[in-house]
Amino acid sequence: MQSSSLAVPLGVFFLGLFLIVGKERDGIETVTDHLNRARTLAMGHIKRLPKGTMIVFDFDDTLFDPHTVIGYRHAGKKEFWHGERRALPLYRPLQPMCDVLKFAVAQGMYVTLITARPDTISTKQIILQNFKHQHMQLHELHCNPDYPQNNNFKALLRRKIHTFRPIGLTIGDQWTDVNECDYHYIKLPNTKEPMLHTTLVST
Predict the structure, then answer these.
(1) What is the pLDDT of residues 149-202, one digit of tens each?
(2) CA 26 – CA 2 distance, rounded (Å)
(3) Distance between CA atoms of residues 76 and 85, nearest Å
(4) What pLDDT, on the 0 to 100 scale, is given for residue 76?
(5) Which of 123, 137, 180, 198 could cross-link 155 (Cys pair, CB 3.0–4.6 Å)?
(6) For residue 18, is pLDDT > 80?
(7) In whole angstroms, what is the distance from residue 179 CA to residue 120 CA?
(8) In terms of C-beta distances under 8 Å and separation of at least 24 residues, what long-range contacts does 141-150 make, across chains too?
(9) Could you give the CA distance from residue 151 to residue 131 in angstroms, rounded to a whole number?
C-alpha cells in the first residue's frame, strides 16, 4: 500500500521536472537560430550600405558544409575516352548565409570570397561549381597561397583590399575571418564555440 501511495507524488514530481527542463531547453538558441539571426542582422546592415561596398565571405562552414556532400559535378574534357575527368564535390549549402550573399549581390554589393583552402585549380573549380549549383554570383576569389600555413593571410589581405575598396562586412565561422578589422563583422558559431558574435545590433 505504501509503494502505491508514492506512485502519484513521484509521477507528479517527474512531470514537473520534465516541464521545467523542457522550458529550459526551449530557451536555448540552436545553431539554426544563430544563423537565422545572423541573416537578419546582415541583410539589415547591407541594405543601408552604398552600392559597390565589399562584403567578404568565408567558404567552409559559412556558405557550405564541407562535411556533407550532396552530389558531384565533373570537370575535364569528356570528348576523349582517355580524357581526365574529375569529380568535384557539391556541398550542402548553409542557406541563411547563402541568402545573405544573394541579397548582397541584388543590392549591388561587391562579393568577395576568402578561403583558407590551398590556391590550386582544384580548389577554384570546387568553389565555382558549388556557387553555380546554388545560382550564386561571385566577384572576387582569394585562396591561401601559403597552405597549410595560415600566417594570418586573411586579415592581411582584407587590410590591403580595404585601402582601395571599402569593406562593409566580413562573415565567417573562425576568428581569423573577422580579426583585425575596423568594420562590421559576423563571427558564426562553430563546433568549438557554438555562439554568434557580431558587431551588428538589432534595430
Answers:
(1) 988 999 999 999 999 999 999 999 999 999 999 999 999 999 999 999 999 987
(2) 37
(3) 5
(4) 67
(5) 180
(6) no
(7) 25
(8) 141/112, 141/113, 141/115, 142/112, 142/113, 142/114, 142/115, 143/115, 143/117, 143/118, 143/119, 144/115, 144/116, 144/117, 144/118, 144/119, 145/119, 147/116, 147/117, 147/118, 147/119, 148/118, 150/116, 150/176
(9) 27
Q: What are the angstrom distances between the C-alpha of 50 and each of 64, 66, 108, 112, 168?
A: 27, 32, 8, 16, 9
DSSP strand pairing (167-172 vs 140-144): unpaired
Joined grid coordinates for residue 119: 590556391
Q: Does residue 74 have a pLDDT over 70?
A: yes
Residue 123: closest CA among 109, 103, 105, 143: 143
For 29-44, the pLDDT digits (tens) are: 899 999 999 999 999 9
Q: Is 189 helix (H, G, I), strand (E, B) or coil?
A: coil
49-64 pLDDT, tens digit per residue, is: 999 999 999 999 999 9
Q: Could you tell me the CA-to-CA distances from 56 to 30, 59, 77, 154, 162 in Å, in that order? A: 24, 10, 33, 10, 11
- Compute the Cα dihedral for 9, 10, 15, 20 and give only its sign: positive
Q: What's the pLDDT at 1?
A: 47
What DSSP assignment string belongs to 83-129? Answer: ---EEEEEEEE-HHHHHHHHHHHHTT-EEEEEEEEESSHHHHHHHHH
The predicted model scores a pTM of: 0.83
